[in-house]
Amino acid sequence: MSWSLHSEIERRMDPTWKRVSKDKGSVVAGTDVARWLAERDVDTITIVGYMTNNCDIATAVGADELGLAAEILSDAPVATTQAWATAVTARHALPKSDLGTSATQGRAAFGA
User: Fold this and answer.
1) How many angstroms separate the Cα of 73 from the Cα of each of 23, 39, 51?
2) Suppose 105 and one of 37, 53, 64, 77 were both cysteines; which one would form an S-S bond, judging by CB atoms 3.0 to 4.6 Å apart?
3) Is the CB of residue 87 less than 8 Å from the CB of residue 79?
């Protein structure tokens, strides 16, 4: 293996979490992630990653092609961090947005 998770992330991993290695930009391209999500009736994915302009955006586009909603957490313009955390804890969905609107709101909030 040419990479490894940070030891703190590895320590927090739950064995029930989906874990894959990929060789494409999108996590759904060439993996069984789409099937795994469908089996669990997932309709929205939250994307966190190293480079928004590479794998994150590729995954968002791949998710859209599969009919999944996608949010890129580092931008998260649909809610504040506190509102997002509260919604996750309460298991409530946040208001929906789209990738274009999200990008525009993120740029307005944080600059180009």
Assistant:
1) 22, 23, 12
2) 77
3) yes
